[in-house]
Amino acid sequence: MRKIKASELIGPVKQALQEINFDTPAETMESLRRAWKTEVSEAGRGVLEDIVKNREIAAKKRLAMCQDTGMAVIFVELGQEVHIEGPIEEALNEAVRQAYEEGYLRKSVVADPLFDRKNTRDNTPAIVHFRLVPGEQLKLIVAAKGAGSENMSTVKMLTPAAGVAGLKRAVVEFVEQAGPNPCPPIVVGLGIGGDLELAALLAKRALMRKMGQRNPDPRYAKLEEELLEAINRTGVGPQGLGGINTAMDVRIEYFPTHIAELPLAINIDCHLHRHKEIVI
Amino acid sequence: MAEAIKLETPLGAREIERLRIGDKVLLNGEIYTGRDAAHKRLVEQLQRGEPLPFPLEGAVIYYVGPAPAKPGMAIGPAGPTTSYRMDPYTPALLEQGLKGMIGKGNRGKEVREALKRHKAVYFISTGGAAALVAERIKRAELVAYEDLGPEAVQRLIVADFPVIVANDIYGGDIYEEGKKRYRKEPVL
What sign has the CA pseudo-torsion A215, A220, A212, A191? Predict the structure, then answer.
C-alpha cells in the first residue's frame, strides 16, 4: 500500500490554485482567440480583445485575471491502494489559505450563508468531493469557481417525455435567460440522469474536462455540438452585447436514472474557466 | 467607431441627458465601490435616517470587490460584479441622487424605470478583465465598513476608466438591442 502524507498535498494544490487564477491553458487561449477572430459584432470583438489582453497582463504580472478568484472546488480521486496519513481536508484547506493569502487572491467565502454572512478571511473552506477508485494513484482536480456563473446554474427535474427535444429547449432557454450575467463566452456543463444531487455533480464534472473534449459516446458528443450551435444562434454574444460567440463549449456527463426521471443540471462557467488536474 | 465621451464625476443631469446606450465613456475623478453587503448597510442607514458615509448626489458607484493589492500597486484586480443583485437596493439610492452605476449584466424593470425617473445611467465594464481595468484606478482609500473585507466601501480615483452605457434615461437596453441584432432564427 502506498502512503502519502496529507501535508504533501499542500504545496501542489496551492500552486495549482494560483496558476489557475493567473495563467491560461493553451486550449482556452486558442478558443478565445478564435472567438475574437470570428466575432461579427464590434462590441463583442471589443470585449474579446479586453479578455485576451487581460489574460496576458495577468500571466505576466502574476495577477488574478478576475477579482472574483472564486471558491475553491476540489475533486479528489483517491486510489484504494493509497493510505493518506493525516487529515486530508485540513491539508486542502491549508493549501487554499496559503494560496489565497500569498497570491493576493480575494477571500470570497462567508461562514454562514443565511444569517451573519461573515467573511472567513482566508477563503476556506474549500468544497471537496471524494471518490474512491482502484489503484495507487491520487488525482486532484482543482478549480476556482466564481459566483457570476455559479448563480446562473440550475437543476431541472424533467420528465422522460421531454426527450431530446425537450432537454435541448430547456438548456437553450436557460442559457439565453442567463444572458450577460455569467460572463459569456461561457462554458456549459450539463449533468443528465442520476438524481438531483448527482446531476449537479456531473454538470460540474463536465466543466472539469478540457476545452473541446467531446463525450466519448457519439450520441452525447453530437448533442454537445448541436447545443453549442443553438446557444451561439441566440445572439447573446460576448458579455451579452450581441454576437455569435455566446459559448465556447458545451460538455455533457450522464448517468443511469430512474424509470420516472430525467434530471438535468446546468452549470455555467464564465470565460475564465479555471481548473487544473494534478496527479500525486 | 465613435469616439469615447470623457466625463468627470460627480455627474450632472446635463451630461446624463447626452448619453445613449452603446456610448463609450471614459470616467474620471472619484467613484465609490459598493456591492451586496455594502448596499444592504447603505439602505438600512437611509431607513434609520442616518447620514451615509459618502455623498450620493451625482455619485457613481462601482459594483466591485477588488482583490488585494500587491505591494506598490494602487489596487488589486478590480473588475465589475453582476449587477442584478443590487437591484433591490438601487431605487432607494437613486432617490438620494445617485447618478451612475458601473457593473455587468442586465438590470430589472424597476431599476430601469427608476433610471428614467431620476435621470441616472447604468454603465458596464468588461467582466473578468480585472487586471486590465485596474490599471485605470490610480488611488484607493477606505471609506466605510472595513469589517466587510473585500466588500468595504472605498473611494477610487480613476483616470479614463472605460465603460459603456447599458441603460440610459430613455429606456434603452444594450443587451436587448445586441441580442436582437445577432439572433439567428430558428435557434433550435
Answer: negative
Beta-carbon contacts below 8 Å between A and B: 169
Interface of A with B in 38-67 (CB under 8 A): 40-43, 46-47, 50-51, 53-54, 57-58, 61, 63-67
> Comparing C-alpha atoms, which of B84, B132, B81, B145 is closest to residue A69?
B81
Q: Which residues form the domain of B48?
A: 15-184
In this structure, is residue B141 part of a structural domain? yes
Amino acid occupying residue B94: L
* Cα(A91)–Cα(A82) distance, integer angstroms: 16
- The CA-based dihedral angle spanning residues A177, A182, A183, A186, taken in that order and rounded to the nearest 10 degrees: -80
Residue of chain A minimizing CA distance to B174: A241
CATH code reported for the domain at A2-19+65-145: 3.30.360
The Cα A113–Cα A162 span in angstroms is 34
Q: Using the structure block, give the residue that is written with the C-alpha cell 447626452.
A: B18
User: Contact at 8 Å (CB) between A105 and B65?
Assistant: no
Q: Is the backbone peptide bond immediately before B186 cis, with ω within 30 degrees of 0?
A: yes
The complex scores an ipTM of 0.95
Side-chain-side CA neighbours of A56 within 13 Å: the count stands at 8
Q: What is the pLDDT of residues B75-121, one digit of tens each?
A: 999 999 999 999 999 999 999 999 999 999 999 999 999 999 999 99
What does the pLDDT read at residue B3? 87
Q: Which of A169, A241, A244 to mutate to test the interface with B (most CBs of B within 10 A)?
A: A241
Q: Please name every residue paired with A268 in a beta bridge, in sequence order, or none if there are none.
A: A188
Beta-bridged to residue B155, according to DSSP, are B32, B141
B4 domain residue, yes or no: no
The angle formed by the CA atoms of residues A267, A272 and A275, to the nearest 5 degrees, is 70
CB B155 within 8 A of CB B143: yes
**Helix pair A163-178, A218-233: axis angle to 10 deg:** 40
User: Could you tell me the residue ranges of all domains in chain A?
Assistant: 2-19+65-145, 148-272
pLDDT digits (tens, 9 = 90+) for A11-40: 999 999 999 999 999 999 999 999 999 999
Beta-bridge mates of residue A130: A76
Q: Is residue B10, in this structure, part of any structural domain at all?
A: no
* CATH at residue B65: 3.20.130.10
Q: At A262, which helix (H) or strand (E)?
A: strand A262-269
In single-letter form, the type of residue at position B47 comes to: Q
Please name every residue paired with B157 in a beta bridge, in sequence order, or none if there are none.
B30, B139
Strand B5-8 and strand B24-33: the pairing is: parallel
B9 falls within a domain: no
The DSSP bridge partners found for residue A158 are A262
> For residue A60, how far is the Cα from the chain centroid?
24
- Rounded to whole angstroms, how far apart are CA atoms B88 and B109? 11
